[in-house]
Design brief:
The protein is built from 16 helices and 38 strands. Helix 3 packs parallel to helix 4 and helix 10 packs across helix 11. The protein folds into 5 domains: 279 residues, P-loop containing nucleotide triphosphate hydrolases (Rossmann fold, 3-Layer(aba) Sandwich), CATH 3.40.50.300; 108 residues, Translation factors (Elongation Factor Tu (Ef-tu), domain 3, Beta Barrel), CATH 2.40.30; 74 residues, Alpha-Beta Plaits; 140 residues, Ribosomal Protein S5, domain 2, CATH 3.30.230; 85 residues, 2-Layer Sandwich (Alpha-Beta Plaits), CATH 3.30.70.240. About 6% of the residues have low confidence. The relative contact order is 0.08. The chain is of the alpha+beta class.
């Protein structure tokens, strides 16, 4: 298929806004499915995992392909729960356009803001769909106002809803002045009523004015027509202008409908094809060995370049999802992973439809496909032509903020559990698993309580054994303030041979910008400067610019330009330092947000030993961390929260949040609901689901998202039962 005819789009929303229902309706409207799957009945095509159907929520993104209006739409239904926001991030990385779904009765909600930021950061052109307009007592135009107020979006009202006591009764297409009514679930195009004519012309005039302010070409068109420039603009010129401003990210077209009844979904599909970009309209960034490279527009004859953005279980195999940017891929092709420096071979190639697939002989630019045979690559990796290596831009995964201890019921179950756990970690880069110190006992880390709960269930399903799982606990980290140096020297006789290694290093925090000169104990003078300026630990993770590594990821290791240590010894040093950093000097928590620079050392030809250098590096790091100048602090994750609660329970919920140490940052009414938001430590919110349900008698919902880190005081350490190592 010509890349200009392809649309790669994702459907994203706050949980329960109805995005999976919209996606299921699209399958019916396009003829892919005969019957409408329902979330409440567990019959959806795209929510195919057992936990998804049991809970009625999307956990993993699901892909499908639908035809419409001469276009081929690769559609991805993304999760709405904040615990699975990494799934959304990974999808946004490879999508060209998106549909932001809002509940007509609720408008913008917490996760709506999160996915909107992800879309904006990735430059994903977006259409908004105000869903559930068929329900009584909803306010579709109020939902549009919330887009402008809370997201600061430049909305384009290209449709105008007509509502009655029972919800949506009609929909006006302001661009082409079409009017559709619904009766018995069927839509009918009818003449625009005379009573609506004046109002429609005013709204169309306002729409034209908005577009004119954003697009000079459309402004010139309006000025050139004999009729009023704000009311009689040509529909085709208006469509083209909406297309340009949407693809440029300047405006957000707004449409209305209902995924459940099907109202307006065919017009939404028209809008996807008309306004959202094709792969030919977007460029990807990559790099070659010789410097920066901006990849050309998709070309089937170009060297192959694609990104692996997710895995999905397919029996005993893993299906790897690839977005192809350039070139053509076929079964049997050999691919190169520049990160792992390993070759991969494509065994099968398929166009994916949820948990099924249609085998393909080849796939070209802009396509999203599933392949088997990928063994050594991970999500976010670039796979390319071995003769033309390049690296596509990728984002690091979020750091885990919550943990659970996991172990088998009996020793015989350990191998099966270990194999299944390795598979899940491979598929989900936000999942962390560390075995030890007791064999067969793992510390499982994730981004939320629900995340770990569901993964524990999937682990049992994959392994065939039911593990013992501990209660959730917060992931604590240790970091340092200031700059410190250390030296380690190992000189030992083993089996009659002397093994030697000496390492000098300096450590500093990543989230500070340092530039100073230090004299090491060996007499070597070094200037310490950061390679990257880090955000402060309290900065909202969502507001970090692209390319900036969060300070709570693993320590960074680098070698100074004058470091004399031979290259063969350096890999052992790096592995040893990363291993030692797993246990900090204060409470034994992993070190984070630090840069370790190996600035010096000593070699003795004939006596140099990689093991000795590795041990010397460990001694040097302990020396640096144990210095009088080194200030070590314990960090705990903080979260942004938003609680929606019925008015009569709002005071009790606020009092409970204050008692948990939360900082209330805002409060607003939304009909009969009250929305409260602010910041709180994750520790204070463990088990909050039960607490808020009890206080509100089940009339409250809440969401959490990572906000940053804060240093604990001695009193905090004591209250959390943390002891010094």
């Amino acid at each position: 298929m010509n890349p200009e005819q392809i649309r790669n789009i994702g459907i994203a929303a706050h949980i329960d806004a109805g995005k999976t229902t919209v996606a299921e309706r699209i399958l019916v409207e396009t003829g892919i499915e005969r019957h409408m799957g329902r979330v409440e009945d567990g019959t959806t095509v795209l929510d195919f995992l057992a936990p998804e159907r049991d809970r009625g929520i999307t956990i993993v993104s699901a892909c499908t392909h639908v035809p419409w209006g001469g276009c081929g739409i690769n559609l991805i239904d993304t999760p709405g729960h904040v615990d699975f926001t990494l799934e959304v991030q990974r999808c946004m990385h490879v999508l060209d356009g998106g549909v932001l779904v809002l509940d007509a009765g609720a408008g913008v909600q917490a996760q709506t803001e999160t996915v909107w930021r992800q879309m904006k950061r990735r430059g994903v052109a977006t259409i908004a769909l105000i869903n559930k307009c068929d329900l009584p007592d909803v306010d579709p135009l109020g939902a549009v106002a919330s887009l402008e107020e809370r997201l600061d979006a430049h909305t384009l009202l290209i449709q105008y809803p007509q509502t009655g006591p029972k919800g949506l009764t009609g929909l006006v297409d302001l661009v082409e002045r079409r009017y559709r009514t619904w009766s018995g679930g069927k839509g009918t195009l009818v003449s625009l009523p005379e009573s609506l004519s004046d109002e429609v012309e005013v709204l169309r005039s306002e729409l034209a004015d908005k577009i004119s302010n954003l697009d000079d070409e459309f402004l010139e068109h309006c000025l050139s027509v004999e009729e009023s420039p704000s009311g009689q603009a040509d529909p085709q010129a208006m469509h083209a202008a909406i297309r340009r401003v949407t693809r440029a990210g300047l405006a957000l077209p707004v449409m209305f409908g209902s995924g459940l009844s099907g109202m307006g979904i065919d017009w939404l599909l028209d809008g996807i094809c008309a306004y959202l970009p094709s792969p030919a309209d977007r460029l990807a960034w990559g790099s070659r060995v010789d410097g920066a490279l901006r990849l050309p527009a998709p070309d089937a004859d170009a060297p192959l370049s694609c990104m692996l953005f997710k895995f999905q279980d397919q029996g005993k195999e893993e299906l790897a999802f690839l977005r192809i940017y350039g070139g053509t891929i076929r079964p049997g092709d050999e691919l190169w992973n520049p990160r792992t420096q390993e070759h991969e071979r494509v065994l099968t190639l398929a166009r994916v439809h949820a948990e099924h697939g249609e085998e393909l002989a080849s796939a070209g630019p802009g396509q999203i496909v599933g392949v088997t045979g990928i063994k050594a690559s991970a999500t976010g990796d670039t796979l390319c032509d071995p003769a033309h290596p390049l690296q596509l831009e990728a984002e690091p995964p979020p750091a885990p903020v919550i943990q659970r201890i996991l172990e088998p019921q009996q020793d015989a179950d350990r191998p099966a559990l270990a194999q299944a756990l390795a598979r899940l970690v491979h598929q989900d880069s936000s999942l962390y698993a560390h075995e030890g110190p007791s064999p067969g006992q793992w510390t499982l880390g994730g981004v939320g309580e629900l995340h770990l709960e569901i993964l524990a269930g999937r682990l049992a399903q994959l392994s065939g054994v039911e593990p013992r799982v501990g209660k959730p606990r917060v992931t604590y980290l240790e970091t340092i303030e200031g700059v410190s140096t250390g030296t380690g020297k190992i000189e030992r006789a083993l089996a009659g041979e002397v093994k030697f290694g000496m390492v000098s290093l300096a450590i500093r925090p990543q989230h500070r910008a340092w530039s100073e000169t230090r004299t090491l104990s060996s007499g070597l003078e070094v200037t310490l400067q950061p390679e990257i300026s880090m955000p402060s630990p309290g900065q909202d993770a969502e507001s970090r610019p692209m390319g900036v590594v969060a300070p709570n990821l693993q320590p960074q290791i680098q070698f100074g330009p004058t470091c004399p240590i031979p290259d063969p010894m350096r890999s052992g040093i790096e592995a040893a330092l990363l291993g030692e950093a797993q246990s900090g000097p204060l409470c034994g928590f992993p070190l984070a947000g630090i840069m370790v620079t190996v600035v010096g050392g000593e070699t003795r030809p004939g006596q140099d030993s990689q093991a000795a250098f590795a041990q010397a590096a460990i001694v040097a790091l302990r020396d640096a961390l144990g210095g009088d100048e080194t200030q070590v602090s314990v960090l705990e994750p903080t979260m942004s929260f938003e609680v929606e609660v019925r008015e009569e329970f709002a005071s009790a919920v606020m009092a409970d949040l204050t008692g948990r140490g939360a900082q209330i940052e805002g409060f607003r009414p939304e009909g009969t609901l009250r929305v409260i938001w602010g910041m709180v430590t994750l520790y204070s919110m463990l088990g909050y689901a039960t607490g808020v349900r009890s206080i509100s008698q089940g009339n409250a919902t809440y969401s959490l998202r990572p906000r940053g880190q804060r240093a604990l005081t001695p009193g905090d350490l004591e209250s959390r039962g943390l002891s010094f190592g």
